[in-house]
Amino acid sequence: xxxNNLIMQNNLLNTLSNFQIxxxxxxxxxxxxxxxxxxxxxxxxxxxxxxxxxxxxxxxLNSCDNCRLISHCPFAYLFETYIxxxxxxxxxxxxxxxPFIIIPPLTENRVFKKGALFLxxxxxxxxxxxxxPILFMLLKKWVxxx
Length: 146
Fold this sequence. Notes:
By secondary structure, the protein is an alpha+beta fold. The chain has one domain. Helices cover 37% and strands 18% of the residues. It has four helices and five strands. The chain has helices at 2-17, 40-56, 74-80, 132-145; strands at 21-29, 34-35, 100-103, 111-112, 117-125. The strands form two sheets. Strands 1-5-3 form a three-stranded antiparallel sheet, with helices on one face. Strands 2-4 form a two-stranded antiparallel ribbon. The longest helix is centred in the N-terminal third of the chain and has 17 residues, at 40-56. The chain is globular, with a radius of gyration of 18 Å. The N and C termini lie far apart (58 Å).
């Protein structure tokens, strides 16, 4: 039993030595008066996720569940985060924690006057970092359309 624990600890250390995380900060300016709900994060993630899926989804399906391209799709990886059937861990769960986190303005203020500045952060974890160029391009497109 001790040998198995030692192997598991060694595997964990190897995994953590390759662990990467990137935090990005974006400064936005309200172009008009902006009203946000109490849970700003779900609004930001939902709105951005919708725009992201619109660009990434080749088959234009409503759900990723039965998509043939799921293992190659940036949207499915960042926003749905399915666990591959070949995975050795978390097999009991349908989805893994998302490797893309949006941190909305951390203020109780829900109304932003025209011209107001507010900070929003995004965190990319592990393989999600390779999608930064797509996310950045889409974020610019998302902001420009608003």
